[in-house]
Request: fold
Amino acid sequence: MGPAVMGKIRCPLRPASMTPGRNRPEILTPPASPPACCTQLTLTVPPQAAAKTRQTHDYPSPAHRRSHARRTGSERTFSAIKDPAATSIARGWCRLTGVTKLTLWLACPLTVRNQRILAAWDARQADTARRAAAGLPPKTRKRRRRQTPATLAGLPP
Reply:
């Protein structure tokens, strides 16, 4: 919509826009041929205009799901380096300014996080090898929910 149609300015070419109070800006000399923003209601944008911001893959496709699955890892990384219990990059964590200096300092918490993940993975691998040598199955994650909805409702499982 044009600014006069939205009620932001007063324009003699749009009589309805002249009803708001005089505290709105007014076009004193309207042009003979108004610009497209004043005459058109919709705007058609060709696909080439949004090629940079358009998604690479169609939404429900397997390629989109594979591509979007990478997002979980990156979000987990960012939350790990922002966590005040481990490594906090909250406001004021570094007194240096400049992209290069901050990038080098930011590489340190990322390196520490990667080392922490590798140490945990090595410990899990060693535990799995120890359990395999003892004839035990690999350790699995414990079930978080102790009761199912059926047992909560008093129904038989």
In short: The chain has a mean pLDDT of 83. The two ends are 60 Å apart (CA to CA).
